[in-house]
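Give me the fold.
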Amino acid sequence: QVQLLESGGGLVQAGGSLRLSCVASGRTFSSYTVGWFRQAPGKEREFVAQLVGDISWNSGSTSYTDSAKGRFTISRDNAKNTVYLQMHNLNAEDTGIYYCAARRAMMISRSTAEYWGQGTQVTVSS
């Protein structure tokens, strides 16, 4: 069982930055692929970024949704059981609840994630 707890959300002006954190329980968290997803009001939850865990040959590889490329960076500190999402140059379209998720496999998606955090609100004012 893995429990995830996000933090770091808040209100920021357009063009600003935030760093989200996701702390996980569990001794084997490094083996999990982790992802960040977001859900805007009235919209479905969507993929933002993923970082592959050491269960896979491509451990450490990352991928992003197109709108996040060049602005967001996903990283992890296995010693702290923590995953981060550094976000720069935020705009109003980035507003939403951001969720951390984990799966003990090479890839993660909204439908395949095994564990979810409770989410943290990000609001970007224009």
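The two ends are 40 Å apart (CA to CA).
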